[in-house]
Specification:
- The complex is a heterodimer of chains A (330) and B (375).
- Chain A is built from 14 helices and no strands.
- Chain A is mostly helical and 330 residues long.
- Chain B has a three-stranded antiparallel β-sheet, with no helix packed on it.
- Chain B starts with a helix and ends with a helix.
- Classes of the chains: A mainly alpha (330), B mainly alpha (375).
Chain lengths: 330, 375
C-alpha cells in the first residue's frame, strides 16, 4: 500500500510539473502582456511609455525568459505562494477563495440533483428495459445529452428573461445578485437562489443524461449475471433483486464516474459561467486568459489539474473499497 | 466511412492467407452495414449527415449573390467558387468593376450574357441592398429582421441573412469535424499502435504522454492554445482541436493492438517475413478499425460542439468566416431577436445528435459483445 501511494504521488507530481510547465510556456508566449493588453487595446493614446513598461516588467519579473519565470513561479509555489494577480492587484489565493464559493454553489447543487435523479432514472430504465415508456425516456435523455449547453442556456435566457418578463416566472438574465451587500440576508439568499436556478439547470441536465445512461448500461450488464438469476430463483421480489443484488454490483463503475466528476465540481463550467456572468472559477480562468494574467492562469491551472489527479486517485481508492477483489498492489 | 474502410483489407495483395482474410473482412463490414441499416434512428441520422454534406458542398449554389455559372463576353465563368476561396473569383469581374453586384452589371456590361443563379439570392457576409435583385427589398437591420418572405430565418443586426450564414456555416462545421478528427485520429492511431504493438519502453512512453495530456483539462489547453495563435483561422482551430482530442483514440487503439499482436494471423504474417510496419498497417489495423471508428464518430460530434462553443465565446474564427457559433454569439447581445438563437442553435444540436447517433449505431453494429447482449 505504501509503495503504491509513493509511486502514485511521484507520478502525480511529475504530471503536475509537466502540465504547469506547458501551460506556463503557452501563457508567456501569448501575444501581448498583462501590462499592455488592457490599456493599449481600448485606448491607443493611453499606451504607457517604454521606460515605464520596462520598469513594470521588471517589477513583475516579466523581463526574464519564460523558463526562468517558470522556475521562479515553481519555487514560490513550493513555498506556498501562488503570487499576486497582475490585472486585479490581489493575491491569487484570495481570488480563488472568492470565486470557489459561487462555483461550488452551482456545481454542488447540480451534482446533488444529478445523483438523486440519475440513480432512480437509471434503475427505472433498466427495470422496464424494452418497454415503450422506457424507450421514450431513453430517447429523450439521449436527445438531452446531445443538446449543447450554451444553446440550452440561450434558450432558457430567452424564455425566462425575455418572454416571461413581467410575470412571476421571470428569472434574472445573469449575475449572482442584484442586491447591495447591506440588504437583509433573507432577501439576499432568495435573490442569489433566483439567479442560480438557470445555471444549475444547465449544469444538471447534461450530467443527468450522461449519468443515467451510464447507470442503465451497467445495470443491463448486471441483470444478465448468474447471481441475479439465482436471486430471482430463490424468490426475491423484482425491486429487491434490482436494488440489493444488481445495483450494488454496479457501484464499481459508478465510483469511477464519481471520482471523474471532481474536477468539474471545483472548476465549474467556463461556458455556463460565461453565459450567465456567474462569478466563478471557470469565468475567472476565461478572464485571466483574456487579460494575460499569468499568475492567475497558473494558479487556476494548478487547482484544476490537482482536482483531476485527486479525482482519479479517489476513484482508485474507492474502487478498492467497494470491490474487495481488487487491491491497489496489482 | 464504411466503403473506404471496406476497401482497406482488400488492398492486401499477397496470395494465400491474405485472400482468406479479405473474404472474412468484407463479410464483417457487410454484416456491420446490415445491422446498422436495421436501426431506424441510426439510418435517419446517416441521412441527415449526408444531407448536411450536400449542403456544405453546394453551399454557394444554394445561397449567394454570385452566379453559379455565367456567360460573359463570350466566355463561361463560375464566380460562385469565390465563396470557397476568394482567389477563385475570375479576374475579369474585378477588372470590369463589378464590385460584387452581379445581376445589374452582367445586364449592363454585356446584354448578351446569361447566368444560372443560386436558389437564394442572399449573401452570408453582407446585407443585400434594395433592388440588387429585381424586385427584392433591402434586408432589414437592427433587430427588425424577423423571419419574412425574403429572409426565411431572419437577419442579424447588420442585415445579413441568417439562412445564408447558416448554409455557408455548414461547410465550416463539417470541415471542423472531419479535419480535426482526421488529425486526432492519425495521432491517436499512431501513438496507440506503436505503444500496443512494441510494448516495453515504447509503450511506457506512449502511455505516460497520453496520461499527461488527459490530465490537462481540455478547455484549459484549448483556450491557452487558441490565445497563443496570432490570427486564428478556421484551419488553426481545427489543428488545435486535433492535437488536443486524440487521447481516447490512442487508448482504444493501444488496447486493440495489445489484444491482436499475439494472434495467429500476426504470427503467420511475421513468418512470411513481413516487417513491423507492414504487420501494423496491413494486418492489425484493418482488424482494429471498427472499435476505433466509434470514438472518432463521437469525436466529430464533440469537435463541432467545441468549435461552435469557442466561436460562441468569441475565441474562435474571426468574423468574415461563417460559423454557427458566431451567429449565436451575436444573439447574446440581442436576446429579443429569437431567430438568431433558435435556428443556429437547432442546427448545432441536430448535427451533434446525428453524429452521436451514427457513432452509437456503429458501436451496436460492430461490437460483438453488444450483439450478444441483444439476444
Amino acid at each position: 500500500m505504501a509503495g503504491y501511494l509513493v509511486q502514485r504521488t511521484v507520478f502525480g507530481l511529475l504530471t503536475l510539473l509537466v502540465i504547469t510547465a506547458v501551460v506556463y510556456g503557452l501563457a508567456r508566449n501569448m501575444p501581448g502582456t498583462p501590462l499592455t493588453s488592457q490599456l493599449g487595446e481600448s485606448d491607443p493614446s493611453r499606451k504607457q511609455n517604454p521606460a515605464d513598461l520596462e520598469r513594470m516588467k521588471k517589477a513583475y519579473g516579466l523581463d526574464k525568459p519564460w523558463p526562468e519565470g517558470y522556475r521562479l513561479w515553481l519555487g514560490n509555489v513550493i513555498r506556498g505562494d501562488l503570487g499576486r494577480s497582475i490585472s486585479r492587484k490581489q493575491p491569487v489565493v484570495t481570488l480563488i477563495g472568492e470565486r470557489i464559493g459561487p462555483t461550488l454553489l452551482v456545481s454542488g447543487t447540480a451534482f446533488t440533483l444529478v445523483w438523486f435523479l440519475a440513480v432512480p432514472l437509471g434503475l427505472y430504465a433498466a427495470a422496464r428495459s424494452g418497454s415503450p415508456d422506457e424507450r421514450l425516456t431513453s430517447l429523450l435523455l439521449y436527445v438531452l445529452y446531445s443538446f449543447p449547453t450554451f444553446v440550452a442556456a440561450l434558450f432558457l435566457q430567452i424564455t425566462f428573461a425575455v418572454w416571461l418578463k413581467g410575470t412571476p416566472w421571470e428569472l434574472p438574465l445573469f449575475g449572482m445578485t442584484d442586491l447591495p451587500t447591506d440588504a437583509p440576508w433573507a432577501s439576499r439568499v432568495l435573490d442569489i437562489a433566483r439567479h442560480a436556478i438557470l445555471p444549475v439547470v444547465c449544469q444538471t441536465y447534461v450530467a443527468l443524461a450522461y449519468d443515467s445512461r451510464f447507470i442503465k448500461a451497467t445495470m443491463e450488464e448486471a441483470i444478465r449475471q448468474d447471481y441475479v438469476r439465482t436471486a430471482r430463483a430463490k424468490g426475491a421480489g423484482p425491486w429487491r433483486v434490482l436494488v440489493l443484488h444488481a445495483f450494488r454490483n454496479t457501484l464499481i463503475p459508478l465510483v469511477t464516474l464519481l471520482g471523474l466528476s471532481l474536477p468539474g465540481l471545483i472548476g465549474g463550467s467556463v461556458i455556463i459561467e460565461q453565459v450567465f456572468s456567474w462569478p466563478g472559477m471557470g469565468r475567472l480562468f476565461f478572464e485571466s486568459i483574456r487579460e494575460r494574467d499569468y499568475p492567475t492562469i497558473m494558479g487556476l491551472t494548478l487547482t484544476f489539474s490537482l482536482a483531476t489527479l485527486l479525482g482519479q486517485f479517489l476513484a482508485d481508492i474507492l474502487y478498492c473499497m467497494v470491490d474487495p477483489r481488487v487491491s491497489v498492489e496489482s | 466511412m464504411t466503403p473506404a474502410a471496406a476497401n482497406a483489407p482488400s488492398q492486401a495483395r499477397s496470395p494465400g492467407l491474405a485472400s482468406v482474410a479479405r473474404q472474412r473482412s468484407v463479410g464483417f463490414w457487410a454484416e456491420a452495414w446490415r445491422r446498422f441499416s436495421c436501426r431506424p434512428l441510426a439510418m435517419s441520422a446517416l441521412v441527415l449527415v449526408t444531407f448536411l454534406f450536400a449542403v456544405a458542398v453546394f453551399a454557394p449554389a444554394i445561397a449567394g449573390t454570385k452566379p453559379v455559372v455565367c456567360r460573359y463576353k463570350g466566355r463561361l465563368y463560375a464566380p460562385c467558387l469565390a465563396y470557397f476561396d476568394r482567389r477563385l473569383e475570375p479576374a475579369i469581374f474585378t477588372h470590369d468593376r463589378f464590385r460584387g453586384a452581379y445581376p445589374r452589371n452582367l445586364q449592363e456590361k454585356d446584354p448578351a450574357s446569361w447566368a444560372v443563379w443560386p436558389l437564394l439570392f442572399q449573401d452570408p457576409y453582407r446585407a443585400v441592398r434594395e433592388n440588387e435583385w429585381p424586385g427584392q427589398p433591402a434586408n432589414p437591420t437592427r433587430g427588425e429582421g424577423s423571419p419574412n418572405r425574403w429572409n426565411l430565418f431572419g437577419t442579424d443586426q447588420y442585415g445579413v441573412d441568417v439562412l445564408a450564414k447558416m448554409i455557408h456555416g455548414t461547410t465550416t462545421a463539417l470541415l471542423v469535424g472531419l479535419v480535426s478528427m482526421g488529425i486526432a485520429g492519425s495521432i491517436g492511431i499512431i501513438v496507440g499502435a506503436l505503444g500496443g504493438y512494441f510494448g516495453g519502453w515504447v509503450d511506457m512512453l506512449a502511455s505516460r504522454v497520453t496520461e499527461v495530456v488527459m490530465c490537462i483539462p481540455t478547455l484549459v489547453l484549448i483556450l491557452a492554445l487558441m490565445a497563443i495563435v496570432e490570427k486564428p483561422t478556421i484551419w488553426k482551430t481545427m489543428a488545435i482541436l486535433g492535437i488536443t482530442g486524440w487521447t481516447g483514440i490512442a487508448r482504444l487503439t493501444r488496447a486493440e493492438f495489445l489484444r491482436l499482436r499475439n494472434s495467429e494471423f500476426v504470427l503467420a504474417a511475421r513468418a512470411t517475413g513481413a516487417g513491423p510496419l507492414r504487420i501494423m498497417i496491413r494486418h492489425i489495423l484493418p482488424n482494429a478499425l471498427a472499435p476505433v471508428l466509434v470514438p472518432i464518430s463521437f469525436g466529430i460530434a464533440s469537435a463541432i460542439l467545441t468549435e461552435s462553443s469557442l466561436s460562441f465565446l468569441g475565441f474562435g474564427t474571426p468574423p468574415p468566416s461563417a460559423s454557427w457559433g458566431a451567429v449565436l454569439n451575436d444573439a447574446r447581445s440581442n436576446l429579443h431577436s429569437w431567430w438568431l438563437v433558435v435556428f443556429p442553435g437547432m442546427a448545432i444540436f441536430l448535427t451533434v445528435l446525428a453524429y452521436n447517433l451514427v457513432g452509437e449505431g456503429l458501436q451496436a453494429a460492430t461490437d460483438p459483445r453488444l450483439r450478444e447482449a441483444r439476444k
